[in-house]
Design a protein that fits this description.
The protein is of the alpha+beta class and 377 residues long. Helix content is 34%, strand content 21%. InterPro entries: PsdUridine_synth_cat_dom_sf, PsdUridine_synth_RluA-like_CS, PsdUridine_synth_RsuA/RluA, RluA_PseudoU_synthase.
């Protein structure tokens, strides 16, 4: 919806510098004084300020849920909204606390949920914006900005590699491009894949979804299809990309599973598409790929909702449970050995594991213990 103009609100007369009508004077004073201090306040900034004030008021008046899981969901929603409004210095400080590895060539951070890597429409703050500040925090005011080596989706958490020098960033990017980096993700799926381990090797293509909510999604583009009970070769799209994902069930119940995913290729939304459309096991909190035909909150079974302590009406607030757990970088530059980088899952991920009666592997028992403490809260 286009932002309303100031004239439509009766707040400002273009070129006159006067507020209209005595009944508007009191309401206009904060805006007029602001405009006098920093020039004419345009309609876009005014609309953004009004929306921000409305959202803050809504947050203040929102009742605090008694259910601890619903409280945690509400906190996460508020946290992701605040990430877009915090000062860049505050965000850089938060990222510095999440550093999991640092040497003379690389800095590795644990990317938080809901934070985009790059800017774009509607993005007020992203990781690339604060890299110069983060570099100065780590090496002093004369430090050159850090460089991105790869990207993660906004909703994905976990291992993210930054480089001090542009040349080093290019070398790491080349390792990713040539598939020399071992990448392992953890995901909570709302169903259990059969078989419990395997490889999904189905090309992926972006298509337009027709209907009242017209939009684009990545989807499968298989080389074969069923025709009257027979397997026949399908017409392949020239825009389809080869996509290969290796998966393994680490823990499961009747209705959910903790999966380890290893993408061999790096296609947009590959893991989400392969799990949802290839294995019929959408990731918990994947509201985009749980249904092909529409954009709507993920539909969860009654049993899953009960374990999570949520109603279906609140399912839209469930975050995507996809975590970049591990990266293994081969020897590079002065480093003669491979670099094994591991990030613990975020708190909401651990809490969901416990709620769904899923167990982490034995070597990650410390994280499992933390999930137990979260459940007791």
């Amino acid at each position: 919806m286009a932002a309303p103009s100031c004239n439509a609100l009766g707040l400002w007369v273009r070129g006159s510098g006067q507020c209209l009508g005595s009944r508007f004077i009191l309401a206009c004073q904060p805006f007029c004084s602001s405009a006098a201090a920093s020039g004419t306040l345009n309609a876009q900034k005014l609309a953004e300020k009004l929306r921000s004030q409305k959202q803050e008021q809504k947050t203040k008046t929102q009742p605090v849920p008694t259910n601890p899981v619903q409280r945690r969901v509400q906190e996460l929603v508020r946290f992701t909204q605040q990430l877009q409004r915090v000062h860049p210095n505050v965000l850089a400080k938060a990222l510095s606390r999440g550093i999991v590895h640092q040497d003379k060539d690389l800095v590795v951070i644990n990317k938080p949920y809901g934070l985009p890597v790059h800017g774009g429409p509607g993005v007020q703050l992203c990781i690339s914006d604060v890299l110069p500040i983060l570099a100065k925090m780590l090496r002093g005011h004369k430090a050159e900005p850090l460089h991105l080596c790869h990207r993660l989706d906004k909703e994905t958490t976990g291992v993210m590699v930054l480089a001090w020098e542009k040349e080093m960033a290019h070398q790491v990017q080349e390792l990713f491009r040539t598939r020399q980096v071992v990448k392992k993700y953890w995901a909570i799926a709302v169903r259990v894949p059969v078989p419990s381990a395997g490889v999904v090797d189905i090309p992926i293509v972006e298509k337009e979804v027709q209907g009242p909510q017209q939009h684009y999604k990545m989807t499968l583009s298989p080389g074969y299809r069923m025709d009257n009970g027979k397997m026949v070769r399908a017409r392949t799209s020239r825009n389809a990309h080869v996509a290969v994902t290796q998966y393994q069930v680490l823990s499961s119940t009747l209705s959910s599973a903790l999966l380890e995913l290893q993408p061999i290729t790096g296609i947009k939304h590959q893991l989400r598409v392969h799990l949802s459309f290839g294995l019929d096991c959408p990731i918990l909190g994947d509201h985009k790929y749980s249904d092909w035909n529409k954009l709507a909150p993920q539909k969860l079974s009654v049993g899953t909702l009960k374990k999570l302590g949520l109603k279906q009406a609140k399912a839209r607030h469930i975050p995507l449970h996809l975590h970049a757990r591990q990266l293994v970088l081969p020897a590079l530059g002065s480093r003669k050995e491979e670099l094994n980088l591991v990030c613990k899952p975020p708190r909401y991920f651990l809490c969901s594991l416990r709620r769904l009666d899923l167990r982490m592997p034995s070597q990650d028992q410390s994280g499992d213990d933390e999930a137990g403490r979260l459940r007791a809260q």
